[in-house]
Amino acid sequence: MLVPVLFALLGHGFLWVALVNRSHGTAMPHSLCKPLTVAMFALAGGIPLGFAAGLATAGLNPLDGRDWLELPWPVILYALVCFGCGLAAFTAWVRRWVFFRPPAIQRFEHGRRLEMPPPTGSPGRHGPRQSWLARLPGNEIGQLEVVERGLQLPRLPPALDGLTVLLLADLHFTGRVAKEYFQELVRACNALGPDLVAIAGDLIDDDAYIAWVRDTVAGLVAPGGVYFVLGNHDSRHDAARLRRALVDGGLVDLGGRWEEVEIRGQRIVLAGNELPWFSPAADFHGAPPPSSRGGPPRILLAHSPDQLPWARARQVDLLLAGHSHGGQIQLPLVGPVFAPSRWGLRYVYGVYDVPPTVLCVTRGVSAKLPIRWHCPPEVVMLTLYTGLRTPRACVAGLQGGEPAALEATS
After folding, report:
1. Do residues 92 and 228 share a domain?
2. Which regions of 78-128 does DSSP assign to beta strands (E)?
3. How far apart are CA 360 and CA 357, in angstroms?
4. Within 10 Å of residue 231's Cβ, how many Cβ atoms?
5. How much is the pTM?
6. Residue at 360 is within a domain
7. Which residue, 131, 195, 230, 305, is the most exposed by fewest CB within 10 angstroms?
8. Could you give the CA distance from residue 69 to residue 160 in angstroms, rounded to a whole number?
9. DSSP letters along 242-276, please?
C-alpha cells in the first residue's frame, strides 16, 4: 500500500497547487485572492496532518488495505481522487522528461548572461529587505539572460523574413531592485537593435516608482516602435497615471486596441489584450483580414498566456505574453510548480505552436519578491522567418528541458 499512499499524497498536492494556480489567473480582487491563497495552503498542509491524526486515534494503519475499508466513504472517495490525480501528475512528469521536443517552428534557441550591476535596492523602505533577499544562496534575481529564438511564422511575408521583436515583461518596479539595474537593461536591449519592442505588462508594484518610467523604459528605441500593455499588478495601482507616463515617454499603448504599422514596406497589425484585468480587448472589427485570407500578419501583446484561445479565434499569428515568471522557483528534477494561470503549468514559459497561433511566454525581468531559483530572469529576442509548418508543428515546448511535475499538462 505504500505506493498508492504516495501517489495519493502527490495527487493531494497536485489538487491544491492547481487551485492556487488557477485562482491567480482570474480577475479576483487581490484583497480576496491573498487570504484565499493562504487558506488553500493551510488546507493543503492541514488535511494530511488531520488525516494522519485521525488514523492514529482510531488505531488504523494507512499501509494496511483492510483498514481503509473502515474509513468513512467521503474519505475513501477523496483518497481515490487524489490517487488518480497523483498518477496523472506523475505520468505528465515522465512524458515531459522522456518525450520532450521543442516545437518544429522554432529554428534555434540560445541564451547568454548579461553583465549587469548588482540588483541592490534603492534607498527607501524596500532597500534593507532586498539586501538580505538578494544574498540568499542560489538567488538568480540579478542574473539576467538574453534568450534568442528563431521562429517560423507560416504566413509571414518574405519581405519581413528576419524581422526581430524584443519581448520584455514583469519588470515589477518596487525599489527592491535598483533603478540603475533597469537602466543598464535598457542599454543592453537597445544594443540588440530590434525592429520592434513589446512590453507585456506588470511594470510597477508601487505608485512611487511610476517616476522611474522616464529614466528606464522610456529610453527603449526601435525603428518600428515600442509597444506595451498592462498587467494584473499594474491594475492594483494608478494604472491611468502609469499609462500617461509610458505614452509621454514615447511608448505606444496597445491596451484594448489594434494598430496597423508599416515595416520594410510591409503591413503588420499589432494588438493588445489586457484581460481579465482591463477590458475590453482589441476589437478587430474594421481591421484588415487575417493573414490566412491574404491580410497582414497579426501580432498580439497580452500579459497572460491565458488569452491564447482568444488569439486563436481571431487568427493571431504570434502571441507575446509574460505573467508566469517561468514559475519563478523551479525545483531540481521537478521544474516549475506554481504559475498564475487557468492552464496551470501548460504554458509556463517558452514557445508553443497551437495553430494558427504561435505563443511565446517569457520568464520576465524581475518579480515583486526578488527571489528566483533555477529560473533566471530574461529578455527574449525573437527573429521571425517565413516558412510552412512541418508535421511536428503542434508539439508544444517547455523550453530549458525542465519538466513540470505537479500539474498535468492537459
Report:
1. no
2. 106-113
3. 10
4. 29
5. 0.88
6. yes
7. 131
8. 67
9. HHHHHHHTT-EE-TT-EEEEEETTEEEEEEEE-TT
In a domain, 407, yes or no: no
Nearest in space to 276 (alpha carbons), one of 6, 73, 56, 25: 25
Nearest C-alpha neighbor of 176 from the set 115, 113, 123, 217: 123
Q: Are 158 and 215 found together in one domain? A: yes
Q: Contact 27/277 with Cβ under 8 angstroms?
A: yes
What's the DSSP call for residue 386? E
What CA–CA distance (Å, rounded) separates 173 from 41?
Answer: 27
Query: Are 184 and 135 in contact, with CB atoms under 8 Å apart?
Result: no
When comparing pLDDT for 333 and 216, which is higher?
Answer: 216
Q: Which grid cell is 44?
A: 493543503
Exposure letters 57-74 (e unless 16+ CB within 10 A, then b): eeebebeeeeebeebeee
Question: Are the beta carbons of 39 and 19 closer than 8 angstroms?
Answer: no
Q: Per-residue pLDDT for 250 more than 80?
A: yes
First to last CA, the chain: 28
The answer to whether residue 55 sits within a structural domain is yes
Domain annotation covers residue 406: no
- 291-350 pLDDT, tens per residue? 999 999 999 999 999 999 999 999 999 999 999 999 999 988 888 888 999 988 899 999
Q: Do 46 and 171 share a structural domain? A: no
Residue 262: HSE in the Cβ half-sphere, 13 Å Cα cutoff: 1
Task: For residue 266, give the nearest of 188, 196, 187, 190 by alpha carbon.
Answer: 196
Instruction: Encode pLDDT of 279-306 as tens digits.
Output: 999 999 999 999 999 999 999 999 999 9
- pLDDT tens sequence across 86-114: 898 888 888 777 777 889 999 999 999 98
For residue 23, pLDDT over 90 is answered with no
Pick 115 or 282 by higher pLDDT. 282
Judgement on whether residues 113 and 253 belong to the same structural domain of the protein: yes
Which of 399, 323, 333, 402 is CA-nearest to residue 364?
Answer: 323
- Report DSSP letters for 298-321, one per residue: EEEEES-GGGHHHHHHTT-SEEEE
Number of domains the chain is built from: 2
Cα–Cα distance for residue pair 167/320, rounded to 1 Å? 7
pLDDT tens-digit series, residues 133-169: 777 788 898 899 999 999 999 999 999 999 999 999 9
